[in-house]
Amino acid sequence: MNKKVLEKYAELIVKVGLNLQKGQRLFIAAGLNTAPIVREVTAKAYQNGAPLVTVLWDDEELKKIRHQYAPRDSFEEFPEWVTTGVLENAKRGDAYLSVTGLNPDLLAGFDPELIALELKTRAKHFKPALNLISNGGVQWTVICPPTPKWAAKIFPELSEDKAVEKLWGVMKKLCRLDYDDPVSAWRKHLSDLSKRHDYLNEMQFDTLHFRGPGTDLKIGMPKDHIWKGGGSKTQSGVDFTANLPTEEVFSMPHKDRVEGTLRSTKPLNYFGNLVEDFNLTFEKGRVVEFSAKKGEETLKKMLDSDENAKQLGEVALVPYYSPISESGLIFFNTLYDENAACHLALGSAYRANIKNGLEMSDEELDAAGVNDSLIHVDFMIGSDEIDLDGITPDGSVIPLMKKGAWAFEV
User: Fold this and answer.
1) Of the residues 130, 217, 332, 385, which has the fewest C-beta atoms closer than 10 A?
2) Which of 257, 175, 256 is nearest to 208 (CA)?
3) Cα 82 from Cα 174, distance rounded (Å)
4) CA distance 279 to 281
């Protein structure tokens, strides 16, 4: 990839994604196949005044090798020094950057039960660190730069080299790297998203009603829920952007107040296994029925991850006519596909999405309707056929989206 584009991307990550403060350390978790952008981010971080950048490298092929050859009874093993280190760095105030670009088909054909066990073990060990990071302890950002296997999945008709080149061309537009000043362009975009969530916070809808082909779903919202989107703040007041790119405004559903059915509109890539064309039925907040044309066993294992994996932790609104949707591509990557359409997440909610959530005890959060789980898995339900209404506490119905487009002005 063009050196100038990499430098623009790295500057965007450091200044808008992480908003790395002078004197602040940076911890990066990255795959070996993302090394070029990791090197550029490291350079920008040091130029920005970081005293130390630490990189924890991973290799997706090693994950595949484990599933090929490791003893079948060894998948509850986990190197505790990894999560201990991440937690200690976060407690110290290090910013956190996750750089991924997995092959969507990496574990296709492998035992879904072992895959689920490995993910559950990883989630259990990472939970203390992720709770601290994701609930505003430090700035954090997730990015997914183009990688060969991923690009080849999106453009199977091309060679890997040509596919990567084409995906970078798409990425330039989606991440606004085609602007002369991407940082300023992103700050304007984030300001526009903040106006959307300010309106939703003022309205404090009691219920959201999604309707479309295969979907008739009512999502109850907890009292004093908070909408966020685009930019976020740490508990100490530092701005950052958790996802690059991002087009969403999001909040938390009440875990016990979800009723009806939904149909997914894009494939779910669950750590190398695809789940496609799936349906979920909810009663009193819990999934009571499910089916999938592809990957149903993977979906079942995901829903069985723990007691609360069958309940929702996030609802996010994204206009269907977003840059990612208008690309016409399915990315087989949640970071991109979730920003093409409205989506939900099974599993844990973010405590920052409810008033005083960061100070509440686990018991208080549960009583307020906040879901807690080892997983947080986003999946898409939005399309140009989806309508969404907000229902106020007094029963008034206010259109929020029509045919996938915003139905209100800010």
Assistant:
1) 385
2) 257
3) 32
4) 7
DSSP 60: H
Could you tell me the domains of the chain?
3-145 (3.40.1830.10), 201-233+246-406 (no CATH)
Alpha helices in 205-319 (DSSP H): 296-303
Reported in sequence order, the residue ranges of 205-272 that DSSP labels E, i.e. its strands, are 207-212, 215-220, 228-229, 231-233, 239-241, 249-251, 258-263, 268-270
pTM score, whole prediction: 0.85
pLDDT digits (tens, 9 = 90+) for 296-331: 999 999 999 999 999 999 999 999 888 898 899 989
Sign of the C-alpha dihedral computed for residues 151, 156, 161 and 165 taken in this order? negative
Separation in Å, CA 285 to CA 190, 257, 309, 348, 356? 32, 5, 11, 13, 23
Helices and strands (DSSP H and E) totals, the chain? 12, 20
DSSP-derived letter for residue 138 is: S
As a whole number of angstroms, the distance between CA 184 and CA 190 comes to 10
The pLDDT score that the predictor gives to residue 1 is 66
- In the structure encoding, which two tokens stand for residue 317, read together? 């609104």
* Main-chain phi, psi angles of 144, to 5 degrees: -135, 90
Residue 145: cis peptide before it, omega within 30 degrees of 0: no
